[in-house]
Amino acid sequence: MKHIFSIILVFTLSVIQAQSVKSPSSALEVNFKLVNNGQPSYTVNFNGKPVVLESTLGIKLKERTALDSNFEIITSKSATFNESWKPVLGQKAIIENQYNELTIALNQKVTNVKMNIIFKVYNEGVAFRYEFPKQEKLNYFIISDEVSQFNLTEDYKAFWIPGDFDSNEYVYNETKLSSIDNTKLNLNNGIGVKSIPGKYTVQAPLMMKSASGLYVNIFEAAVVNYPVMHLNVDGVNFKLSSQLVPNAIGDKAYLQAPCVSPWRTIMISNDARDIVGSSMILNLNEPCKLDDVSYIKPMKYVGIWWEMHVGLSTWDYAGSQNAQNISSKELLPSGKHGATTANTKRYIDFAAKNGFDGVLVEGWNVGWEDWVGNWKEEVFDFTTPYPDFNLAEVTAYAKEKNVKMIMHHETSGSVANYERHLDRAFDLMKKYDYPAVKSGYVGKIIPRGEFHDGQTMVNHFNFVARRAADYKLMINSHESSRPTGYSRTYPNYIAAEAARGNEFNAWSNGNPPSHETILPFTRQLGGPMDYTPGIFEIKMSYYDKNKTEQVHTTLAKQLALYVTMYSPLQMAADLPESYEKRMDAFQFIKDVALDWDDTKILEAEPGDYLTIARKTKGKQTWFLGAITDENARKTEITLDFLNKGQKYKAIIYEDAKDADWKNNPMAYKIRIVEVTNKSKLNLVMAPGGGTAISFEPIK
Amino acid sequence: MKHIFSIILVFTLSVIQAQSVKSPSSALEVNFKLVNNGQPSYTVNFNGKPVVLESTLGIKLKERTALDSNFEIITSKSATFNESWKPVLGQKAIIENQYNELTIALNQKVTNVKMNIIFKVYNEGVAFRYEFPKQEKLNYFIISDEVSQFNLTEDYKAFWIPGDFDSNEYVYNETKLSSIDNTKLNLNNGIGVKSIPGKYTVQAPLMMKSASGLYVNIFEAAVVNYPVMHLNVDGVNFKLSSQLVPNAIGDKAYLQAPCVSPWRTIMISNDARDIVGSSMILNLNEPCKLDDVSYIKPMKYVGIWWEMHVGLSTWDYAGSQNAQNISSKELLPSGKHGATTANTKRYIDFAAKNGFDGVLVEGWNVGWEDWVGNWKEEVFDFTTPYPDFNLAEVTAYAKEKNVKMIMHHETSGSVANYERHLDRAFDLMKKYDYPAVKSGYVGKIIPRGEFHDGQTMVNHFNFVARRAADYKLMINSHESSRPTGYSRTYPNYIAAEAARGNEFNAWSNGNPPSHETILPFTRQLGGPMDYTPGIFEIKMSYYDKNKTEQVHTTLAKQLALYVTMYSPLQMAADLPESYEKRMDAFQFIKDVALDWDDTKILEAEPGDYLTIARKTKGKQTWFLGAITDENARKTEITLDFLNKGQKYKAIIYEDAKDADWKNNPMAYKIRIVEVTNKSKLNLVMAPGGGTAISFEPIK
């Protein structure tokens, strides 16, 4: 499967000393030049107007001359690409990859070190990277800093989270660039490990909007053997610059030529839908490197998980998080352990009855009795179950019921320990026929001094995906660095969390109603997110009268998220009993597809609303999800995406009239209408609400 | 095999508030008291005279009150132990473990943190450790420093090497404590990675001798989950203090109560033989934790190794150490690769013909084309052979010849990478029936910022031994931290290098003639050393006329080292052709045993000479090794260790009359005499020379 599918490939090489390049549509234009003392720089125009002003580029090296000046241009070459490829799983059956490329080959006069800067210009954005060709004067080198500038023209409104080296699980702030200030944030937000380097550092993807309605998004693609890039913000001059995440001793990246940096991306459009719908990040990654992708399949799953979040049971068999070095054989059961054989069978029964693919079980293995917050190295061995979880019995039962078990590997951030046990852990998965694993990285990283977003950890996350591919296993990483399209190359890296997921609603200040309207413009550009939607019992007071926490959406919006939050791995996160009480609404979760032939972004405004329609892979059914933020919303949707001449039964799951995310979140109604591609539908959403629709062809 | 063997066990518990404890012989006495503001301190007397003056003890913690003052004594308890145990392999069949113990239980008044200090006093030395019992006030903690003092009474002569955090491969310096100064050393010594923290830091074991002839040795035992301890020297006041090796961010140790520090040891005797012959370091370690030790067997081996050191062949298939990221499939053979199938068969033939157990092959696997000096993470995968090394063919051939292959894992210091591949590497060894592996750690450590001697690496070395035990494999680590007796607990950790081995003689200023008379007083106290003796072709000019390097001993001394340098894993390091030219001398290497019923230290003076006799395990044969430093030496040895009434054929391998390590090192002679336990033998050793004797009972 190394070569997926190619419809058209046009390759034009121009040896003219061009130093500018336009998008295929010509709307975007990049100009490169050397400024000052041979310093690389670029500008970006959109429809003839500047969006990125002169911005310099450079790489600082440890104990060597910085690659940021004294350059001369050796050659500059341009080329045109137009190809298509088929993702193994995706939002579309075929992805277009069309761009114009400009390669500037540079020589640093004082050192004779060669460095190339490559631009790719798509219709929806610009990408550039540094390339270090094989050469005599540069073999091994250490990057002490990257100085890539993104100098904007005005004080954009930004959707930002702090540039934390260890966590991306933040609520988005919506302010002007000039008002960004990490010290003004409420950090009592449920995040365990925080490493915020400064007042004005934010994370990419940084979604922005100008006063005139221009959408700009700065991100990166193909972060491989390189740290994550955060962004330093000069809010006075609207200048952004790269902030690479350091390692334990302050170095940023260890490289050997020939090699490349990740792509730095600047998406630009007058239409927010172009950004949500972009495949640019995926396109900038290498094609699939797996020969066999037959085992990579979408999965809808339930699991022993939310019941721990709401306090009904515990991950820990012994009910204590402070076992103080006692042997796991001495643990005394608390009676509250969630991951028991009996409880797992209950979930398997529920999954089988409702046509789910898988069951996740967290807390099945020894270690949870003393696992977090202490930088402990040897926490889990990933192979030893608690005494009340019978692996053989559970997996035999699942097999009998035609349900797959999903493995869980919490590492507690002790990556050194995880890597030591990885082969054994994967062997166990194969022995018991687990097709996928959810991994977790809650806690300070070991090797100590490393951050979740440094080169070491980026390499770890990518390594686990590659190693899992050896075993034909799928990976879903939580608390990892955020994806940048590596799932194109290793599609068995099926999903990741890597942002503030639904779980925060159970025990923290949660995720505000706008949260899910922003993620598709930020986190989700890099790949599928395991957001774990589908919470029906919205208020935690249901479980404990003293609790005030709640999910910040209506129930109907939880359904809509299955369409708006793309992932081929989707959890129905709530308890079986929550679904059994509302089987009519649960029907949507049972029906909704996970893999798609086509995706239509119908409406999009970051922080406000999003409406997406998708066609099931290989079938004629469509699904639509529409969500809004804290404001109620009415909209009329034209169904022209449906097949011409075909009648559909549309089942509409929507907020009841009096619904409201805060005061009446669980009020929904379901109506069924017959529609064609000429129909229009009025969608009415409550504050924090949403609408989910399935379209089934009528035969 | 968890419980080995116990002849006598006497346990006496005294609840008297004793704060002093004596050795079983009463010659040594330790006194404990709290001084100043509740600061723990101790003194040591030998035969009533002070050897260690008042020395304070304490542990500094990160972000917590230091555990170095404000203590009160809760209880102090003394006890007497006398037991014996049988090592799996060893210098003696039965090891006596006899000591008196004093446990001081302390409470820190201001914090209520409990800490115990435990002393064990043996006839030949004192040991103490810190113990952190399970308690409410101390669970996880980070040691930022240990402040254990060893305040001596005078300006001892010391045999010292610099307190390098990354290497112990130094030549010993022999100066007064007051003259220790790392900045005055010649560091052009063949050592690749050096991290010397300061002018006055030296390594333990530190062997010393007073003007009056008192021998004092400071070391440690049972370094488990703790960094290596070096020693800071105050040469003006003759005060030594602990210097723990830091991690990447400056912390020393991450611990969780209940736990203990390693033992700090002070051996003291008027007779240097008591120190060389001591089993104290082994005794201070935990008993064997392996159930099955059947696979732990001594091995005498040859290998494809010295031919690379002398420049006849290369580890690298491609003959270049700078392949710059090219795929291993693109490598072009240089024709100089040592680890070929054909060459390996030649060594197997030689091993089989001469009764050797094993053949080591270095350079068999992909990675050597670009492996060292660049802090490269992914160097070796430990499973992919070069195209000219056929694993299946080689191992089948070895099996046919009844020879075992010894695996080689050079890590290039990239421990993160090694741990990731360890299970696969061991699986390969089992598949091809390799019983043992020599591992190497040449280069700066990855995780980057860690040192060879930090807690992370100590844990790594111990982890590899434990993981190897899962596979029933033996480990021989090179460039590791030096052993501190862990081979008692995991006897499959059969040997280590961890000091300046014979190899330095091939390509550096080498090891002076005194070197091998010091190692048994230092490095070898902690466990067997894979020194790789047996070089017959002493001068490198034999291989290349321009070379001036040479082994700094006579040939006869190379033979004697098989007895004086204890190891159950012994290499005959020279080339088969070097032995084939001198089969008469080679006979000693063929004959000499590797595992012993008994060991007699006949003569010992650090830096000058050493004479040891050992009885073969389970047989009546004895072997004797005598070595001298740069000075010629004559000595008369009484053979009263031999069995009474038994006649022996003694084959004496000795320096020829005109032999001299520098000018005539390869001149040896062999004579045979008949002896009994009443005989005396005159040994005559050349400068840098030695004598090796085998005693075969005459039937």
Largest sheet of chain A: 11 strands, antiparallel
Class from helix and strand fractions of chain A:
alpha+beta
Rg of chain A computed from alpha carbons, rounded to a whole number of angstroms:
25 Å
How many helices of chain A does DSSP assign?
13
- Unreliable stretches of chain A (pLDDT < 50, length at least 5) are 1-11, 13-17
Work out the number of β strands of chain A: 37
Multimeric status of the protein = homodimer
Task: Record the SSE blueprint.
Two copies of one chain form a homodimer.
Chain A: E1 12-14, E2 20-22, E3 28-35, E4 39-46, E5 49-56, E6 59-61, E7 71-85, E8 95-108, E9 114-122, E10 125-132, E11 140-146, E12 149-152, E13 157-160, E14 173-176, E15 201-203, E16 206-209, E17 215-221, E18 229-234, E19 239-244, E20 253-256, E21 259-260, E22 263-269, H1 272-276, H2 280-283, E23 299-304, H3 306-309, H4 341-353, E24 358-361, H5 391-400, E25 404-410, H6 415-431, E26 436-440, H7 455-470, E27 474-478, H8 486-489, E28 493-496, H9 504-507, H10 515-518, H11 555-564, E29 569-571, H12 576-580, H13 583-591, E30 596-605, E31 609-616, E32 622-628, E33 633-638, E34 648-655, E35 668-675, E36 680-685, E37 690-697
Parallel strand pairs in A: 23-24, 23-29, 24-25, 25-26, 26-27, 27-28
Antiparallel strand pairs in A: 1-7, 2-3, 3-4, 4-5, 5-12, 6-11, 7-8, 8-9, 9-10, 10-21, 10-22, 11-20, 12-19, 13-14, 13-16, 15-18, 16-17, 17-22, 18-19, 30-31, 31-32, 32-37, 33-36, 34-35, 34-37
Helix pairs in contact in A: 4-5, 6-7
